[in-house]
Amino acid sequence: MTEDPPVQHMVLAVSTVIFSLRPHPDTGELTLWLPLVRRIREPFKNRWALPGGPLQDSQDLGEAARTAMRRTTGLQPRHLEQLYAFGDVDRSPDAPERVVSIVYWALVRQDEDAHAVDAENVAWHPVDEVPGPLAFDHDLIVRYAVDRLRAKVTYSPIAHAFLPAEFALAELRRVYEAVLNRALDPSNFRRQILSQGTVEDTGRRMTGTAHRPPRLYRSAPQSSRYSLTIEESP
Amino acid sequence: MTEDPPVQHMVLAVSTVIFSLRPHPDTGELTLWLPLVRRIREPFKNRWALPGGPLQDSQDLGEAARTAMRRTTGLQPRHLEQLYAFGDVDRSPDAPERVVSIVYWALVRQDEDAHAVDAENVAWHPVDEVPGPLAFDHDLIVRYAVDRLRAKVTYSPIAHAFLPAEFALAELRRVYEAVLNRALDPSNFRRQILSQGTVEDTGRRMTGTAHRPPRLYRSAPQSSRYSLTIEESP
DNA sequence: TGGCCTTGTGGTCACGTCAACCTGAAGGGG
DNA sequence: CCCCTTCAGGTTGACGTGACCACAAGGCCA
């Protein structure tokens, strides 16, 4: 009555929405970007799609997401978390088989250079300017992932994952502003972050800056009794 | 590079954690219950497990959860939502095949009599007294589902799904108390619920009660711009 | 060199939310 | 008919938050 014999003509895939921060080429403002891969096969040949692939026998789900990430961007996720399982019967209308996709989302560090392994078929795009329509229902998935990132950033200290080990509060604030897409009051932001105890003062200051040099902080050790199924990597 | 040929020896299943409210047999207090089914096959033969089954070709994921619900409890879900996809390679150590389970959780109405279809192999249990260890990693899944229900009830008006069309605020409060497992101040609860506008006054009062008769409310029409992938049923 | 400009840091104030608590209303039961 | 219980509504103080203000601390430029 619970889980039994295999089913034909069904594919189980793992895809990942990978977020990074870069300055927007027009405005120069820090914005959210994500990598897409161009499909070289039917269905949806030549359309852009989320990086991913079929789940291998020996891989855990998160491991599969990590593998696909490295294959497309050469990057390690600083935060990796399952988003949703998409499996409607009609989600790939022209495909020969039904595809059930378990989708993850990931954050990578701003300072790690995101060199695409296959420069021709992999490209980064600002999240508000994805070259749609994407393959399958990936437009929907991207929207959903952005919503989830925005929601989560407001109640969980995941934004640190975009930054290097040490950072100024203004840098962290600009991360929040890029994710939430609105300006935040520097003073109030400072108070909130410090009161929640997710960062700690290193005692040092940033050097070589114009104007007053800001203090440097690092993210505080997590209390580690997190949700059961969230995965992170160092 | 995205989703391609099938994989052998892998099973895609859909399971559901079904929540209902009943008085606890010992204390008489309203508590959370869920139905489990006894496995009649290996692996984990004779252990209790979540209701579910293999995903059929023609079924959407939520549809599969709904079908399994009706088969085991004869009930319609008043709220149905995807929980998580569990797919670790070692999660069913003695099973001949790897099982990836997409798990849903559901709420059913307190007043609809939960008649098990197969009384011998299906039984309801208080969530804190499940006859463990369960099959597969279902103990973990149950804990995770309870956490998610508790979290969601604090920021979303889903508790109404446990109640009939019209109800008193004290009944709604007792639902919250059962889910959160702590007492709530009646006065403050009243203010919070009314201020968030998720219930509306019917103008009538409950009759035949001892003491002062309470007003009857119904759940207000939802603003319907909810999360993209949450499913509910009428 | 000294004023100016920009950004970082710290504080105040008004407002809204919430937990704890108090008071009266409205019925049934002894 | 009084008492008990539950419903209904209000008060108070602690706390978090947004809007706003003032000073600190460096580089830049006349």
From TrEMBL, chains A, B:
It holds the Pfam family NUDIX. Residues 201-234 are annotated as: Disordered. Residues 36-141 form the Nudix hydrolase domain. Residues 162-218 form the NrtR DNA-binding winged helix domain. Residues 220-234 have a biased composition (Polar residues). Coiled coil: none annotated. InterPro entries: NUDIX_hydrolase-like_dom_sf (IPR015797), NUDIX_hydrolase_dom (IPR000086), WH-like_DNA-bd_sf (IPR036388), WH_DNA-bd_sf (IPR036390), WHD_NrtR (IPR054105). It comes from the Bacteria. PANTHER family: ADP-RIBOSE PYROPHOSPHATASE, SLR1690 PROTEIN. This is NUDIX domain-containing protein. It comes from Nesterenkonia alkaliphila.
